[in-house]
Amino acid sequence: MDHTSMRKVESALQSHDMFQLMCEGADLVSSVWQPFLKSVGRWNLEVAGLGVKQTQATLQLSRDLARCRTPGDVASANIRYWEAMTSQFAVSSQRLAATAARTVAQAGDAETEVVTLRVKARDRDLIVIPDQSETLDRKVA
Fold this sequence. Notes:
Largest sheet: none
Shape: elongated
Radius of gyration: 33 Å
Number of strands: 0
Distance between the termini: 33 Å
Helix content: over 70%
Mean pLDDT: 78
Low-confidence stretches: 5-9
Number of helices: 2
């Protein structure tokens, strides 16, 4: 193995340590932010579910209004629509509040769950010294 290929291998080992440190840092960040991001996902799913339920209630209102014959039927269809909307909103708001409460509780626990990084002791610093067996031929002009 010549001298240039050995130098590339040693520099690859040094960059390996840097990438290892970066990956461990990413693991630490993900362990700290995991409860928050999990609650954001729950929040988004709940809001999407509420949107679907309210869309279904709106479609039901349009079907009910198409079948109405008297002004009383129109009023009762609107009452059913607003009762469905408010009940769905009440249930979803309770679930969203529970999600926020879980997030706050998990944030307090996250301090104990943080993964500590391993302290990697360096054996020595590496200095690349050219091989003494190689002699450079210099010519003076």
